[in-house]
Design goal:
Elements (H helix, E strand, L loop, with lengths): L1 H14 L15 H6 L14 H8 L6 H7 L3 H11 L5 H27 L1 H28 L7 H7 L11 H13 L4 H20 L11 E4 L7 H14 L4 E4 L6 H15 L9 H5 L3 E4 L16 E6 L17 E6 L11 H17 L3 H9 L6
Parallel strand pairs: 1-2
Antiparallel strand pairs: 3-4, 4-5
Bound molecules: iron/sulfur cluster.
The site of iron/sulfur cluster (SF4) has 12 residues, from loops.
Length: about 375
């Protein structure tokens, strides 16, 4: 048998051009072991070609490996371990552990330095992530309301879908018209909700985060934001992350809806402990705050054809600058907050406000002239001929 096995291995090494140096050492069961363990013999089949030569050399009958395990349980394992141990360097485990610990420490150090160096970009990325997740949640809420599905049942309904439309990734405004399109094509409420949940990871990681290679941000992911109370969204997030990084560790924050607020509170605490002062006016001021809300044709945004129906929330505040020039005028002692705009452009009311902003810029320019620009103009002024 060892000769036959050796020939087969040799054949494979040559035909597959493996270039390996393989040595075959029989370790079980040799004649000596059969005698030592007193293993019984069984008759050899007549059809066995090697029967005569074998019996001529070792006597009548042969011993099976099963006999060793039946009469001496565990002995086969011990023999194999003893033999393998001859080639096993036990010190390697320790060396690997030391090198791994070193590598982990270096990676942690690089990670900390990279976070420090790119703190601003990370903060921007986080803000953009939160904005997209919030927008997406609003979309989900809007669709659920339109289909008369309570928020608490949204995940169950999405899981009922057996197919879903492929919604387009990107801006919420286009997503909205895409949903209407898919409805026209005949997709049902459950299927559209499933499609909306499925598009969220693409919107968050690729559209907002610009992360085509997810691995570059690591292997551990904490899903935060109220959207992740919806298990259909959690499933699509986990599927997406694992499809990119199979070894990734994904957890949902235990208080996903409040995680951002907890983080903000911790940052504020840190800041305060280092001597920072709050500009918060206090809960009493908030309770006594006077405000009014306006939503009308005069609050519609006309910077692009979407024409978002914005709302103006006017709050009475000591020292408020007011907006006398506005189509919805506001007196001194009041400040305006604009909401329901789909993009930052909508934070500027209209052309009147643009004029005010420009006047302000001009005034600043006059007060702080660009000396370098004046010098450049003077230096290159064409001399009168
Ligand atoms: S806020 Fe104004 S500019 Fe932005 S999408 Fe709406 S209408 Fe367009």
């Amino acid at each position: 048998m060892p000769v036959a096995v050796a020939r087969k291995i040799e054949h494979r090494i040559r035909t597959d051009d493996l270039g390996l140096d393989v040595q075959l050492r029989p370790i079980i069961l040799d004649e000596h072991q059969c005698q030592e363990y007193r293993l019984p013999r069984t008759p050899i089949k007549e059809s066995e070609r090697r029967k005569d030569r074998f019996e001529e050399r070792y006597g009548e009958g042969a011993t099976e490996l099963d006999a060793l395990e039946a009469l001496h349980p565990g002995e086969l394992r011990r023999i194999l371990i003893r033999e393998i141990s001859r080639y096993y360097d036990g010190g390697l485990d320790q060396q690997i552990a030391e090198v791994t610990a070193q590598l982990d420490a270096t990676l942690t150090d690089i990670n900390a330095r990279a976070r420090d160096e790119h703190a601003d970009e990370l903060a921007e990325l986080r803000a953009s992530y939160e904005q997209i997740v919030r927008r997406h949640n609003e979309q989900l809420q809007g669709v659920a309301e339109r289909f008369d599905i309570p928020m608490s049942e949204m995940a169950d309904r999405a899981f009922l879908a057996e197919a879903m439309p492929q919604l387009s990734m990107g801006c919420g405004v286009f997503l909205q018209s895409d949903i209407v399109n898919q409805q026209r094509k005949g997709w049902q409420a459950d299927e559209i909700l499933a499609g909306l949940c499925a598009i969220l990871p693409l919107n968050v990681w690729i559209y907002a985060g610009g992360l085509n290679n997810l691995k570059q941000v690591g292997r551990k992911y904490i899903l935060q934001g109220g959207t992740h109370k919806n298990l259909a969204v959690v499933k699509t997030q986990v599927d997406f992350i694992l499809s990119k990084i199979p070894e990734a560790e994904v957890v949902v924050h235990p208080y996903s809806g409040e995680a951002g607020a907890i983080g903000a509170a911790l940052v504020a605490l840190d800041w305060w402990e280092r001597g920072g002062q709050t500009s918060f006016r206090g809960f009493d001021s908030i309770e006594n705050l006077a405000y009014k809300t306006v939503t009308s044709v005069d609050t519609v945004c006309h910077w692009c054809p979407v024409n978002c129906q914005r709302s103006f929330i006017d709050v009475e505040l000591l020292g408020g600058k007011g907006r006398e020039w506005s189509k919805v005028p506001l007196g001194y002692g009041w400040e305006r907050v604009i909401v329901n705009n789909s993009c930052p452009k909508g934070l500027v009311e209209d052309l009147n406000e643009m004029k005010v902003i420009k006047t302000e810029i001009e005034r600043t320019k006059d007060a702080f002239p660009n000396v370098a620009d004046l010098v450049r103009k003077e230096a290159f002024r064409r001399a009168p001929v």
